[in-house]
Amino acid sequence: MKILLYIIGVLALVVGILHFMAPKTYQVDRKIVVSKDVDTVFKSLCSLKEQQIWSPWAEKDPEMKITYSGNDGTIGSFTHWTGNKDVGEGKQEIKKIEPNSYIETELRFLEPWESTSTGFFEIKPVAEGTEVTWGFKGKNTFPSTVMMFFIDMDKAIGPDFEKGLAKFKAYIEK
């Protein structure tokens, strides 16, 4: 019995150390330049309905159920999705809009696990058209802090952002 308590104590100490050493925040983002003007790009990115056209996750579950509420493209509008194990269930709500430069959403994941993150688009004019940065960020809380030692968020989600931006470029430039 004494050995078991000793093992449990050591495991708790290791988990505690990992928690305090782990990163407390994360951010993943990708950029692309599209050959359209800022206004056109901004209006398209503001639309939660248009986002589904090029979303890399829509491809992972063509049967995903999506509902929209509010006036699409305005603060307070949101989408709710329910899908397979690859997309889970969640909600995305537009929280902040800075015309022709920034859009921020709150992503509330409900399944397969609960978490909340901030999604964002940064838009700026460049010589070739418009540079779009798409990303998401958030805070790690226990026990996810410990899991972050074993999960590279950039490698896990970055490729989806790259795929989505490539699809967005094809969509907006057509």
TrEMBL record:
Domain of life: Bacteria
Gene3D superfamilies cross-referenced by the UniProt entry: 3.30.530.20
Keyword Transmembrane (UniProt): yes
Keywords attached to this entry: Membrane, Transmembrane, Transmembrane helix
Signal peptide start and end residues: none
SUPFAM superfamilies to which the protein is assigned, alphabetical: Bet v1-like
Transmembrane segment boundaries: 6-22
Protein name: Polyketide cyclase/dehydrase/lipid transport protein
Originating organism: Marinifilum flexuosum
Lineage, opening ranks: Bacteria, Pseudomonadati, Bacteroidota, Bacteroidia, Marinilabiliales
